[in-house]
Amino acid sequence: MYIKRTLILNLFLSAMAVAQMPLGTAFTYQGRLQGNGNPANGLHDLRFRLYDASVGGAQVGSTVCLDNVSVSNGLFTVLLDFGAQFAGQQRFLEVDVRADTGLDCSNLTGFVILTPRQALTAAPNALFALNADRLDGLDSTAFLQSIPVPLTLSGTSATHIIRGENASTANNSSGVRGACTAATGAGFGLYGTSVSMSGRGVYGAATAASGIIYGVYGFATATASGYGIYANGDFGASGTKSFRIDHPDDPANKYLLHYAAESPEVINFYSGKVTLDAAGEAVVELPRYFAKINKDPRYTLTAMGAPMPMLHVAEEIDEAALSAGAVGGPGGNAPVCRFRIAGGVRGAKVSWRVDAVRNDAWVRTRGAPVETEKQDLERGTYQHPELYGQPPERGLDFQPETERHVARVAPD
Question: What burial class does residue 399 get, using C-beta atoms within 10 Å of its C-beta: 0-12 exposed, 13-18 middle, 19+ buried?
């Protein structure tokens, strides 16, 4: 006569299925069977039923009956499949057993019900996880089971929709990295737009206290025309603007930086050297597009080799040519722009430079303001509050999360 089981071992999802087969609803059940106080051995028939209560209640799913289950020293292992019956509710397993006498499962003679029913552990319910109605309060449709292309995330947040944070100290580590790997076409590794008058398409902040750091870093590897960072519109910086190269004297250990000139005007400049003719004069012809993108030229002449006190611009760039260029469209011949140098010494060299105010279609349409009013949420804030004795909270781009992070990683 069989008595109740002394131990039901672990229940877990069937990882014993053939490799690479899809995960189904079956799970492995292990148990220990005793008869008359001793471990059972030999072949036994087992019937399994699933209920929604420990006593009484309703049966869930069909009955699973297994013939000729091998029991060794009381231990047996079977694979059970009640179908999709695990939706997060508690389930209880009832087991009937008999020693094998040659009868099949259609004949119920000799089966003994083992009590009590066994409460199933949580593992089989993991089968339900991919289709859970709620997870952390969110509907299952809020979670991706595959990655769509293109992937679009939208929402409303006072901080961010996507955030990448990397605490690695390794070189070239990144919080968010974009790569455009096509060999042709005008692709972008990272592309950002903003329709707000005070918004930013892409914003980068470098907050480390020391070291060579980048708010935004762009890297162009193509040997055709390309840009590490390209702004389709105005480009601004609250600090200095520089180019940086490996220092020619110590390229392995130093950088060489040269800084961009700054002016309240948008200036284009052109320069060169010219040799004066027998009359001590020369005509300098400027690029064919000069009239279409410039106005208000200014001149600088430098005598080379010896002073030339009478050196001067004898004939300026024709204003009519500049006016015609400003209204000229694409294609066609642009008005020729040239100026004449005189008063020099025959055969001498002169270094010249022409500075002109940029006057292409972009500037003519949008202008180039020098003083502007801060708008909306920018009012009352500072780009660099520390320079004016103000707390970080007064910063235009103050990010509480970033400030807390910097405080955590700052050296003692």
Answer: middle
How does DSSP classify residue 178? -
> Rounded to the nearest 5°, which phi and psi values hold at 265?
-115, 150
In whole angstroms, what is the distance from residue 210 CA to residue 226 CA? 30
Region of poorest pLDDT, from 15-19, 44-48, 131-135, 219-223: 15-19
* pLDDT(129) > 80: no
DSSP 196: S
Compute the distance between CA of residue 155 and CA of residue 134 in angstroms, rounded to an integer: 19
- Tokens read off for 369: 């303001």
Q: In this predicted structure, which of 80-94, 149-163, 256-270 has the lowest mean pLDDT?
A: 149-163
Q: Name the nearest CA neighbour of 97 among 80, 84, 114.
A: 114
Give percent of the chain with pLDDT exceeding 70.
77
Retrieve residue 180's tokens: 């455009």
Could you tell me which residues come within 8 angstroms of residue 296 by beta carbon, excluding any fewer than 6 positions away? 356, 357
Q: Who's near 115: CB < 8 A, 6+ residues apart?
A: 4
Residue 28 vs residues 47, 79, 124, 139, 300: alpha-carbon distances, Å = 15, 5, 9, 30, 90
CB 255 within 8 A of CB 226: no
pLDDT, position 16: 39
CA 378 to centroid of chain Cα atoms: 26
Which of 111, 120, 117 minimizes the C-alpha distance to 82?
Answer: 120
Q: Burial code of 19-33, b = ≥16 C-beta within 10 A, e = fewer?
A: eeeeeebbbbbebbb
Q: What is the pLDDT of residue 125?
A: 54
In this structure, is the dihedral angle defined by the CA atoms of residues 234, 235, 239 and 240, taken in order, positive or negative?
negative
pLDDT band for position 230 (50/70/90)? Answer: confident
Max avg pLDDT among 32-36, 196-200, 218-222: 32-36
Tell me the CB-side half-sphere exposure of residue 55, using CA atoms within 13 A: 1
Mean pLDDT in residue range 64-71: 93
Bridging pattern class, strands 75-80 and 59-71: unpaired
CA distance 91 to 95: 13
**8-state DSSP, 106:** T
Count CA atoms closer than 13 A to 194's CA, side-chain side.
10
